[in-house]
Design brief:
The protein is built from four helices and four strands. It has a single domain, classed as Roll (Chitinase A, domain 3). 31% of the residues lie in helices and 21% in strands. It is an alpha+beta fold and 119 residues long. It comes from Hevea brasiliensis (Para rubber tree). Pfam families: Rotamase.
């Protein structure tokens, strides 16, 4: 359970050529990531977001199949976290959401994300 100064969130991360670590569980050599532009990562994420918001797809299903974060195996769940534990843009976006809301595209050093606040 998230405490008063904590939030809980799930996210979908798409890494791209500008990401600080160009490898992930589904692309250990980083072959796809190194050839993905930020724009194409954003386009992909926007389509996922549209499908989730319209009810065509479940957030956790997309996260578990497509997210470049190891949290994919938990449907994107990052668990509870407080201020100062995540990269600033990610933290700011998460704290600004109401529970159940999904962010727009959020840029961090890791890549581009959409975030769903769950607690």
């Amino acid at each position: 359970m998230a405490s008063a100064n904590q939030v809980r969130a799930s996210h979908i991360l798409i890494k791209h050529e500008g990401s600080r670590r160009k490898a992930s569980w589904k692309d250990p050599e980083g072959r796809v990531i190194k050839n993905t532009t930020r724009d194409s990562a954003v386009s992909q994420l926007q389509l996922f977001r549209d499908d989730i918001v319209s009810g065509k797809a479940k957030f956790e299903d997309i996260a578990s199949r497509f997210s470049d974060c190891s949290s994919a195996k938990r449907g994107g769940d990052l668990g509870p976290f407080g201020q100062g534990q995540m990269q600033k843009p990610f933290e700011d976006a998460t704290f600004a959401l109401k529970v159940g809301e999904i962010s727009d595209i959020v840029d961090t050093d890791s890549g581009v994300h959409i975030i769903m606040r769950t607690g």
